[in-house]
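Listing S7. Sequence submitted for prediction.
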Amino acid sequence: MYLNHSRLKKILSGCRLNKRPAQKVLHHAYFDYTMSIALGYSSNYDDAVEMTNDAFLKIFKHIKNGELRYENIIASFVACLRVIVICSCIDHVKAFNKKEVIAGQGFSHAEIVERLNISEGLELGRNL
């Protein structure tokens, strides 16, 4: 979906007022673009979708506070969107790597699997 200057301005105004239909249109219009960025940070489609949705949540939450800098609203918004998506992707990658290190206590994934037998795995699963 292509949003021209006036349509994007109207949609952003609706998003500032927390109107769900405006948020839906913005999400639909830029989902493919944001996914193309997120897929560069993830080898997994589902993780990329999560990164993209996190970015849109940040946009919808903070859009009330921000103003676009340039007269060309489309270029200004796309530049802001790109930065937010990249930051969300980096945050997601950092959080994922941190969880792996905490779970593995410094061991690689292969070392964890090698050290863990089936009965220990079942016992750990029951304790969750």
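Caption to Listing S7: primary sequence and predicted structure tokens for the chain studied. Confidence is low (pLDDT under 50) at residues 100-104. The radius of gyration is 20 Å.
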